[in-house]
UniProtKB/TrEMBL annotation:
Transmembrane parts of this sequence: 7-29, 66-84, 93-115, 121-138
Protein name: VanZ family protein
Originating species: Neobacillus notoginsengisoli
Keyword terms: Membrane, Transmembrane, Transmembrane helix
Span of domain VanZ-like: 13-138
A Pfam family hit: VanZ
Coiled coil: none
Amino acid sequence: MTIMKKLINLLLFIVYLSVLFYLLFFSAYRNGVQGIVDYNFVPFKTITRYFTYSFRLAPTVVTDEFFGNILAFMPFGFYLPVLFSKIKSVGKVAFFSFILSLCVESAQFYFRVGVFDVDDLILNSLGGIIGYSIWVLFNRGRKRLS
């Protein structure tokens, strides 16, 4: 990869992280839950609740909370192997996605701008894995065209 492409990808990654940081800590939704101290350490409890009570919840709750957590980390999983040559396995991407998510969840809990939810760790890590899978498919397609 040329230096210019690497710089552009790095700039896009920084923009992505900046937008992610804003959404996770400063968006209007975060201001609405500010001061709330809550947590969930039971895996799949919140995910199950999304689908069990989806008929009672506003559609945006399920889409924003469930799919939003996945979509938010897809670029992270895509850009890790692009920018870091030693991170080219699903296990490494899952690990770094989990670590970033753990830091975010812990900071949201500590600063009282969100709820610490183990299901968010699961969904965010899944998003990173999906992003990585998209990179793998993109990379294979690019090699075939070469």
